[in-house]
Specification:
By secondary structure, the protein is mostly helical. The chain is about 65% helix and about 5% strand. It has six helices and two strands. Strands 1-2 form a two-stranded antiparallel ribbon.
């Protein structure tokens, strides 16, 4: 593992692990293992991550539009991860690292935005009948 001043470089850690996960989703039929969502079983409603496994499998197979219809939030997260991998290669090669710090009102705005995005994704999944 690559470390600088005793700190692990996240740019060296997360891309290989995430890419390994995408490879597993490509190689193993995770969407056919018969998993179930306890929240959906109890309430009859989809959870916020409903369709996420199927979306990851579809994304890993290059079916991005299908993944987007299955769970938009998971698909955008996967697309963001792919962009992060590009950033990680550049950061490791150049030594330039981006470390945003959210504090005060910016942190509050970020938390509210996360809740809004989760709510919109959940509303979509409910409306789509997942």
């Amino acid at each position: 593992m690559i470390a600088v001043s005793g700190k692990v470089l996240h740019e060296a850690l997360w891309p290989p692990l995430g890419l390994l996960g995408l490879w597993v989703a490509w190689a193993v039929p995770l969407d056919r293992l018969g998993w179930f969502c306890p929240f959906h079983r109890l309430t009859g409603l989809p959870c916020v991550a409903c369709g996420g496994t199927r979306a990851v499998v579809a994304f890993a197979h290059g079916r991005v539009l299908e993944a987007l219809t299955l769970n938009p939030l998971v698909t955008f997260g996967l697309a963001a991860f792919v962009l992060y991998c590009v950033y990680a290669v550049v950061a490791l090669g150049s030594g330039l690292r981006f470390r945003p710090v959210l504090a005060g009102s910016r942190a509050t705005v970020a938390r509210v935005l996360v809740l809004v995005v989760l709510s919109l994704n959940w509303a979509y999944l409910i409306a789509a009948g997942r």
